[in-house]
Design a protein that fits this description.
Length: 522
């Protein structure tokens, strides 16, 4: 098999390298974050930890806006890079910064009016912690403004596929958060200090990303370039994306607020811990999707539909399988793992974690589909339908809680609605010429169903856990091994197995040459 056949027109080698860098970053950050969360929970206590996550979460959950706007910006940046139109890229970047400035002004007006009223009059917060809650809220607003401003710069880095700097700065951010926790022990009011120190870390992070982009990307110009048609196009495209982000915000933070109203801050602590576990696991598939997204946009820009859909078919399976390999052993050992991690996890944490993992697994299947739909630019009806399904989570959750049904039903409903989102994303792929539902079902959906079903049945039938770290490691490795074997034998076609071996050989050979050159010179 020739190299051109695999790498052309998709730069598979670069995508695999970027995925590897993001995985190294993620594993390191995962270890630090898990340790950091345990220290924060011990330092603040369950009640203050819950207060921080429900109050700061009202602001920080707006990071979905940043993620969505980053996706919108990255779509335009990648298309310009695919066409090698650097003058238009410079114009796009300048207009994007202007749009983010307008969003920042709007956000401050809403946050310090409606948001402040809601914090002080609607949330369930102990009277003695109301001042601390307001301090946390204001520092979170500052942190979000810096996150918002740095988003176009981060989108530019992803569009250039410079995942190394993205990985390095993310690791630095995780280390700073660990140092932050160690400083908390010397602070009188740990909750207020935690909010202030988190804000400082956000400012440092933003400054480093901006400095890197200004030094390395010539398309960043600090002068005004106006193009009304482009401005209108970006506003409309980003506006529909923001509708999707608002829907996700309503779902996530709205559910958090409902739990606070019905059960108080202790359940917010459980929900927050479950959310952090979900985020950690999701990154195993998100890393691959981040590395793949720019190439999907660039392929669409040059009308390489065949290569783009090839990425969708293999990307959907790989994103799903990357999460499945991690999820299966954690799902069956989560009670013991949470006990090791948190000693005494808050009530409902175990069941929240398990259900959120399943929801993330369902979502991972459609990430490459979402990248194609974003690349087309035709997203008005697409985002309206997806946003409407996502928003349904809130009234459904309210109905479940007000009727007195088990609180886990909130997350069962979320899994069902996420499957509906996947279906909508699949249907909208038909707007791009060359897509086949039958091929997707045959090459993607059926293999993952068989692998998932068999891996859960086999792994549930045995357990090597004997309440020791050694037996935990043995059980996790055995379940991962079984899942990987099923993926290799059932989940991948013969052609995909050959291409995987080919790419891995090239990947390892390049790193071997790099190590040898570093050690012995030319």
């Amino acid at each position: 098999m020739s190299q051109s056949k695999i790498n052309n027109p998709i730069n598979a080698k670069r995508m695999l390298t970027n995925t590897g860098l993001l995985y190294i970053r993620h594993l390191f950050i995962l270890f630090i974050n898990l340790f950091t969360v345990r220290l924060v929970l011990n330092a603040l206590g369950a009640e203050d930890f819950g207060i921080y996550n429900v109050v700061a979460g009202i602001v920080l959950m707006c990071s979905f806006f940043c993620g969505t706007m980053a996706t919108s910006s990255q779509r335009y940046f990648s298309i310009d890079l695919g066409k090698q139109d650097y003058a238009h890229l410079s114009q796009t970047f300048t207009l994007t910064l202007f749009i983010f400035g307008l969003l920042a002004i709007l956000f401050v007006l809403l946050a310090d009016s409606i948001g402040l009223w809601f914090i002080n009059h609607k949330l369930t917060i102990p009277p003695g912690r109301m001042f601390a809650a307001n301090c946390i809220y204001q520092t979170s607003i500052v942190a979000f403004l810096f996150t918002l401003f740095v988003t176009p710069f981060l989108a530019l880095i992803i569009s250039h596929e410079d995942m190394n700097i993205y990985a390095y700065l993310s690791i630095l951010e995780a280390v700073l958060k660990l140092i932050l926790v160690l400083i908390l022990g010397f602070c009188p009011d740990k909750l207020i200090a935690y909010g202030m120190l988190m804000t400082i870390i956000g400012i440092v992070r933003a400054g480093l990303y901006i400095y890197y982009c200004v030094r390395h990307y010539p398309e960043i110009h600090w002068h005004w370039l106006w193009n009304f048609d482009l401005f209108k196009e970006i506003i409309v495209f980003s506006g529909w994306n923001l509708f999707g982000a608002v829907a996700t915000l309503i779902k996530n933070q709205g559910t958090n607020i409902l739990l606070n109203i019905f059960y108080g801050p202790l359940l917010n602590a459980a929900q927050s811990l479950a959310g952090q576990v979900r985020t950690a696991i999701s990154m195993f598939s998100n890393n691959f999707s981040h590395a793949m997204r720019p190439q999907i946009s660039k392929s669409y820009a040059v009308r390489n539909y065949e290569g783009m859909f090839r990425l969708v078919y293999i990307g959907s399976k790989v994103a799903y399988f990357l999460m499945l390999v991690v999820l299966v052993p954690l799902f069956f050992n989560i009670t013991y793992i949470l006990g090791l991690w948190l000693k005494s996890p808050p009530i409902y944490t175990v069941v929240f974690v398990q259900l959120l993992m399943i929801e993330s697994l369902i979502e991972s299947l459609s990430q490459p589909m979402a990248s194609v739909n974003q690349a087309t630019g035709k997203i008005a009806l697409y985002q309206f339908l997806i946003g409407s399904v996502v928003i349904l989570n809130l009234p459904v959750a309210y109905w479940i809680l007000v009727r007195g049904y088990p609180v886990a039903g909130v997350y069962v409903a979320a899994c069902i609605l996420m499957a509906g989102v996947d279906l909508i994303r699949l249907i909208f792929l038909k707007q791009v010429a060359g897509f086949s539902y039958w091929l997707f079902i045959k090459r993607v959906f059926m293999p993952i169903c068989w692998v998932t079903l068999l891996s859960f049945i086999i792994c549930k039938s045995f357990s090597l856990l004997r309440n020791t770290l050694f037996s935990l490691g043995l059980d996790v490795l055995s379940k991962m091994g079984i899942t990987l074997l099923l993926i290799w034998m059932i989940g991948l076609t013969r052609q995909e197995r050959r291409e995987t071996i080919f790419l891995l050989k090239n990947y390892l050979r390049e790193y071997w040459y790099a190590i040898r050159e570093l050690a012995f010179g030319n």
